[in-house]
Amino acid sequence: MTSTSTGTSAVERLSATTLLRFATAGSVDDGKSTLVGRLLHDSKSVLTDQLEAVEHASRSRGQEAPDLALLTDGLRAEREQGITIDVAYRYFATPRRRFILADTPGHVQYTRNMVTGASTAELTVILVDARNGVVEQTRRHAAIAALLRVPHVVLAVNKMDLVGYAEDVFAKIAEEFTAYATELGVPEVTAIPISALAGDNVVEPSATMDWYGGPTVLEHLETVPVSHDLTGCHARLPVQYVIRPQTAEHPDYRGYAGQIAAGTFRVGEQVTVLPSGRTSKIAGIDLLGRSVDVAWTPQSVTLLLEDDIDISRGDLIVPSGDAPATTQDVEATVCHVADQPLTVGQRVLLKHTTRTVKAIVKDIPSRLTLDDLSQHADPGRLVANDIGTVKVRTAEPLALDAYADSRRTGSFLLIDPADGTTLAAGMAGASFATEKAAAGVGEDDDEGWDF
User: Fold this and answer.
1) Which of 144, 336, 367, 408 has a 20 to 30 A CA-CA distance from 306?
2) Residue 421: CB partners within 8 Å, gap ≥ 6?
3) pLDDT reported for residue 357
């Protein structure tokens, strides 16, 4: 056996690296899957049998060079149509960082999948075809990234080889996109000219664009600062399951299990259970079969309380000094993802963390116009891929944080109660970080509710 006493093992080195979750987005045929395939191929993250399968599939389609997009387009329909339909998750690593990548569809019909892929991302790569520039779908993806509070956005101007690697073409697109993203409140945009097909500025610097002195895509992914420390955030534990063994060994055991969404919990801490408002103290914390004094996000734990109070799935355990207000009137920005429209007066289910309650769409004050970020007042309904503000009245109180404070406990889903279809993804509180994008919302009106 080889000794590791004089050096660090591969497992230890890998565990010491940071993790970056990122998503790719862009319009149809902008080259997202090719970029992902190039990243995997040039970073030596593709297994030999995978590469052989891609080469065989490419030859059968009459292509001499391997089509790297096939590394991510795994569904048969995707290969036949040459488009991405489903979110393709890929896991790879370099010596500097580990990555979880979500390759999301560019077709307008599958915008809902972009919302899914970017909802947990710390960085989004938005591709633009250098020949077409910024198009409506580019703006839609930028708006979604801003709504989801993705802290880092990379603009990858692709297919530079088809415009003669012209610097002025890249500069014009970068200026237009950056101005638009800034109006949305995107905190950081990094523009990189690339050719995913040829490999320019993806993993290796381009020999044909010496006018560009910035990082390659992979270099930026490896060095962009990310923080996974949510221990200082508002502590929240959505209760997923109540554990009552009622055995001879544990006759009186009652624990409240769930994954800590944010923050830290300690034994002896005063906590409040929402929406009931009842209070108690943490008597114990069980983690992986052992007792601990402190637990933090994203650990899955079981809390034991000093008092025997009524707690069930969907309740939220929070520190008594940092409890969010409960409400039955939810105002939020939503991205509508269903084929059927969302209309005023529609009955829906609202799913927030582990809690699902009945609700009614009270009002749709505005719909966002992506061209100039203006608000279209009182649209009456939202259709597929629309972004708008909604007011919802719930049958039971909810404890929502503002999405700007917590992406986990500030988000929710609107669901069709008839068939379980997800209608919209919602972000509670203010939508964008800028006043212009958030302007135009109407006044509240409480009439006409039956709960």
Assistant:
1) 408
2) 338, 340, 415
3) 97
Low-confidence ranges of the chain (pLDDT < 70): 1-17, 45-87, 106-112, 227-232, 370-372, 431-451
Sheet holding 88-93, edge to edge: 88-93, 97-103, 18-26, 123-129, 152-158, 189-193
The residue to which tokens 């529609």 are assigned: 346
